[in-house]
Amino acid sequence: MTLHVDRLRSGGLIATYQCQSACPHCLYRGGPGRSPDYVSQEMAAACFAKALSLGCASMHVGGGEPLADPLGLAGVLAAAAETGMHLEYVETSASWYDDADEAVELLTELRAMGLSSLLVSLSPMHNGFVPLRKTLGVLEAARTAGVAVFPWQEHFLADVQAFDPEATHPFAAYLERFGPNYPAEILRRTWIHLGGRAFDLFAPVLGRKPVEAILAEASADCRRELADASHFHMDLYGDYVPGLCSGLACRVDDLGAPLDPERYPILTTLAESGISGFYEYAAALEEYQPLPGGYVNKCELCQDIRRHLTQRGWFESTELAPVEFYAAL
Ligand code: SF4
């Protein structure tokens, strides 16, 4: 059976992939090098309408940095109002913060347009790009503007406060201060999905295994992961990210019916025969050599096969998207 996503539970709209930060755990590989493209009001409305039609009445807005383009965000808020989509919160890294009065003014204007809640990133990974002063500044400005806030995640505050709040501190500084097992400590304290840049961040404490071991222990198919709509994402280009499998995509318009295997050969292969089937598929299509250092898990192998296909110019479908995701691999 091909992949069929017929219900959506809870998810987000990726407004842009560009971000001033390039956090080492970012699932979507956002960063300054990504395109500044921002979701249009029309596309946001189309994504919200599709989500509503499949049973999801509440979404968040993420990125990239959604507040990098306040006018664009105003369009998203208007699209939510127009379609009847409830926006739970908008994510921000606080990188845009400069001055308290300007921040209060901006957030007050956005509040009048429908911004009710901000998720403000607070972690050692973000602190590599955003000084704590900015993070705390946005939290305070939002409270003043009457916008609800939740720092994500507050338990990291004590760790980040160990450093100068006026400066950024790369993750290496945290390793030096808290020891080489600090990434394992982070995984004990919070859930971080292993995908995107997170493989490299956590590989030193998780280890990597040869491809044979990965294939031997992998489940027979990836249908459950790909069909999981409990934390889905749609993006500015009108693509839907199946499950948390960043770098894979189907068109939002194609949700609600079984995916056409000819249009989606990779998603169909992964849904039907998992990483083993995909490995064989890639080997038959394009010579693929697994990395000698191995992989953290089947998803890192999957990402590496997809990188290989994009580098070999494999454009038989639009499933490997956005292409920029693979550019830095
Ligand atoms: S192996 Fe690929 S398709 Fe399967 S869960 Fe991991 S990223 Fe998703």
Q: What structural keywords apply?
A:
binds iron/sulfur cluster, 41% helix, globular, 329 residues, 13 helices, 8 strands, rSAM, S-adenosyl-L-methionine
Written overview of the protein:
Its cofactor is [4Fe-4S] cluster. Keywords: Iron, Iron-sulfur, Metal-binding, S-adenosyl-L-methionine. GO terms for molecular function: catalytic activity; iron-sulfur cluster binding; metal ion binding. The chain has 329 residues and is of the alpha/beta class. It folds into two domains: 11-190, Alpha-Beta Barrel (TIM Barrel), CATH 3.20.20.70; 213-253 and 260-327, no CATH class. The chain has helices spanning 41-53, 70-83, 100-113, 132-145, 157-160, 171-178, 182-189, 198-206, 211-217, 223-227, 265-285, 298-311, 324-327; strands spanning 11-14, 58-62, 86-92, 117-121, 148-152, 232-235, 239-241, 250-251. Strands 5-4-3-2-1-6-7-8 form an eight-stranded mixed sheet, covered by helices on one side. Strand 2 (58-62), helix 2 and strand 3 (86-92) form a beta-alpha-beta unit. The two termini are 31 Å apart. The relative contact order is 0.15.
